[in-house]
């Protein structure tokens, strides 16, 4: 009998993002995408279409380039919104992620969150830090 490890689902990923201090859901474009934000700055957008599940992450340029080189079949430039700074966003196609380990997915989500924190003012970062440990229920 083969012991297969359960893989992260889209709901698991939303829940992981939602655990970040100050994170909340927003629906500025309708029901899709589910946007996860901190202080009105989006760090992840989840597209829940079962035929093409994907998530777009905010990123530092270097991290985005590294992920695209490491996972060229799964990580693509964000094309959902041309006005998004393409240098700072990438889309992860979840149907193609069979070779991306869960710990790498967690690093992608952590890095997206950190990329947003880096653009906040020091006062906003202090407010977010003060929110650590608050319980929330994700909406997806």
Describe the structure.
There is one protein chain. Strands 1-2-3-4-6-5 form a six-stranded antiparallel sheet. Helix content is 31%, strand content 21%. The chain is globular and about 40 Å long. The longest helix has 16 residues, at 102-117. The protein has four helices and six strands. The protein is an alpha+beta fold. The N and C termini lie far apart (34 Å). The relative contact order is 0.20. The chain has a single domain (10-119), classed as Aspartate Aminotransferase, domain 1, CATH 3.90.1150.30.
In terms of per-residue confidence, which ranges show pLDDT below 50 for 5 or more consecutive residues?
Answer: none
The radius of gyration computed from the alpha-carbon positions, rounded to a whole number of angstroms, is 15 Å
What does the largest sheet look like? 6 strands, antiparallel
- Structural class, from helix and strand content? alpha+beta
**CATH fold label:** Aspartate Aminotransferase, domain 1
């Amino acid at each position: 009998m083969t012991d297969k490890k359960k893989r992260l689902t889209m709901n698991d990923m939303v829940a992981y993002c939602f655990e970040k201090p100050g994170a909340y859901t927003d629906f500025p474009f309708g029901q899709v995408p589910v946007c996860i934000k901190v202080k009105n700055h989006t760090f992840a957008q989840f597209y829940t279409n079962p035929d093409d599940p994907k998530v777009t992450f905010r990123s530092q340029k270097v991290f985005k380039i590294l992920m695209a080189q490491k996972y060229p079949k799964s990580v693509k430039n964000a094309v959902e919104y041309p006005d998004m700074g393409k240098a700072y966003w990438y889309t992860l196609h979840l149907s193609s992620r069979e070779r991306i380990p869960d710990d790498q997915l967690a690093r992608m989500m952590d890095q997206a969150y950190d990329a947003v924190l880096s653009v906040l003012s020091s006062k906003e970062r202090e407010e977010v830090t003060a929110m650590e440990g608050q319980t929330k229920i994700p909406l997806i």
